[in-house]
Amino acid sequence: MNLHYYPRENDKKERWITLLSILLILAVIAMLIFLNWTRIQLSIKGYNKEERAFLLTLDKEELADYLNYDNAIDFSRWDSLENNRHYYNYELLSDTELKDKEIVDYIDTYYENYHEWFVAHGYQPKQIQMLLHRYTIKELAFLKEHTLTWKQIAPYIEINGCIIQDLPQYLQTKKEPQEAIMEISYPNIISQNKTSRIYYLENPEHPVLLIKNGFQVSTDYVPKNLVEVAIPNAPDNTNNKMRKDAAEALENMYQDALKKDLHLAVNSAYRSAKEQKIIYDQMFAIYDSVTASGLVSPPGFSEHQLGLSVDLTSQSVIDEEIPVFGYTKEYEWVSKHAHEYGFILRYPLNKTHITGASNEPWHFRFVGVEVATEIYEKGITLEEYTQQHGFDYPVSLKS
Ligand SMILES: [Zn+2]
């Protein structure tokens, strides 16, 4: 019996040991999987060992972005290179308008030709990232070519409207950065100062946006919240919409004028770039180009496309009792009170050299009560206001 007993006891013991060992091994495996889960996910997505090692150095949020991609980003072209920041910069630029291939070309060119120079000239990683995100290779090349250090450019590049190519001139003026930028890069805010430059305004929603010849919004831009203005219309007007904020202000102005027995009406408010083009072409067919360009803006350059401007008229003009709006009691009242509702007389008679537009007593622009009041009280134009305050929105040179 004993002979049978001991082996059986041993058998049982052995089975326990085996079971425990298996459990232990499974636990170790589970632990390893747990500890390396991110690494495993990355490798399932197709990142190789070196790429994984780099990605794991990123902070949580950056890493999460990589984990959210369906597949690995194709970094094959960068395999032979040693600089891991390529990967990071790819991520950085993937929210720009650049296509994948353009991003890869851009980053390649940067590391081949410029990276060392920037590092040697005091640019920190954060600053380099910002430059890469914001500027073209041509602009980076310009910084290098002109040996501009971070310390030199920093006060300027944070100001809206700073143009890289103008940096050496800003530095020469020794003026306050904003003043230097306005003077050097935007002399043609004042229309009599001609340049061939065209500037692009990428935030057409901004209520104080300076749009005029040379300062353009996308011809595709259509304001949100366009509403029909609830005041009378000139008989043949089909453009009686404005942005809601401007429409409400105009309705209030209309009602208050009515209390004084003054009868305002809308001649033309929002116009799409397409409608603007039709008017533009008509004017050029009738007048010589100098006259025509003083009378009407090209598509993309007109205030009417913003939904913030209105050409006013009055019942007396509609009834042909008075020939033009500028001679009416309504004009007299509006020119003194429009600012209380947020409107400015945009193209005054004595400012045509600044605005570049001929006297337009009917054209009013909504900019909000605060700005309108300042412009009215100082007797200035939107151009001069912009010169004094700088751009409160991004402006870039159109390439
Ligand atoms: Zn107008």
Notable traits:
elongated, alpha+beta, 399 residues, binds zinc ion, 51% helix, Muramoyl-pentapeptide Carboxypeptidase, domain 2, 9 strands, four-stranded antiparallel β-sheet, three-stranded mixed β-sheet, 20 helices
Layout of SSEs?
Layout: H1 2-35, H2 37-45, H3 49-55, H4 60-68, H5 85-93, H6 100-113, H7 115-120, H8 125-134, H9 137-145, H10 150-157, H11 167-173, H12 177-185, E1 199-201, E2 215-216, E3 226-228, E4 241-243, H13 244-259, E5 264-268, H14 273-286, H15 289-295, E6 309-314, H16 315-318, H17 329-337, E7 343-347, H18 352-355, E8 360-366, H19 369-378, H20 382-389, E9 395-397
Parallel strand pairs: 1-2
Antiparallel strand pairs: 1-9, 3-4, 5-6, 6-8, 7-8
Helix pairs in contact: 5-6, 11-12, 14-15
Bound molecules: zinc ion (ZN).
GO molecular function, one term: carboxypeptidase activity
Pfam families: VanY
Keywords: Carboxypeptidase, Hydrolase, Membrane, Protease, Transmembrane, Transmembrane helix
What does this structure look like?
The protein is elongated and about 120 Å long. The protein is 51% helix and 9% strand. The chain has a four-stranded antiparallel β-sheet. With 399 residues, it is of the alpha+beta class. Among the domains are: 2-35; 199-397, Muramoyl-pentapeptide Carboxypeptidase, domain 2. Bound molecules: zinc ion. Zinc ion is lined by residues 304, 309, 311, 363.
